[in-house]
Amino acid sequence: GDDLLLTVLHSYESAYRHTYLNNTTRSMGRLVERCGDSLRGGGHIYYVGTDTLAVMGFLDSSEMPDTYGTPHTEVRAFVKGGWATMCNADGDMTERDPLFHVSP
User: pTM, whole model, 2 decimals?
Assistant: First the structure.
C-alpha cells in the first residue's frame, strides 16, 4: 500500500542522489554501455535483488517491452520472495500468463 509506495519513492531518491550527486555518472555510463553491448550481442540484462531495490528492478524491466520493443525475455528481474515481496493486491499472478512469472 502507501508504505510500499513511500519506500519505493525514497529508494528512487536515494538512487538519484548516489547516481547524480556523488560523481558516479561515469561508472553508471559504463554500466549502461555494457548493458547495451549485451543486448546488441544477443545477450540479456538481469536485475537480481531483494526488497525495495528488487521492486525497482522489476519495474524497470517491465517497461522495456513497451518502451523499447524488447522481447520480455531480454530484460528480466529476479525478486527474492517473488510476488510476496511485490505486495501485489491481486496476489501471485504467475498462473495468469508466462509474462507474469516472477522468479523468487
Answer: 0.63
Helices (H) and strands (E) in the chain, counts: 4, 2
Closest CA to 76 of 103, 95, 96: 103
Cell of 62: 517491465
Query: How many C-beta atoms surround the C-beta of residue 63 within 10 A?
Result: 12
Angle between helices 2-20 and 25-40 (to 10 degrees): 100
Report pLDDT digits (tens) over 64-92.
888 988 888 899 888 777 777 767 677 77
Q: Which three cell numbers stand for residue 78?
A: 529476479
* Side chain identity, residue 68: Y
Q: What is the DSSP letter of 49?
A: E
The pair phi, psi for residue 48, each rounded to 5°, is -130, 125
How many CB atoms lie under 10 A from the CB of residue 87? 13
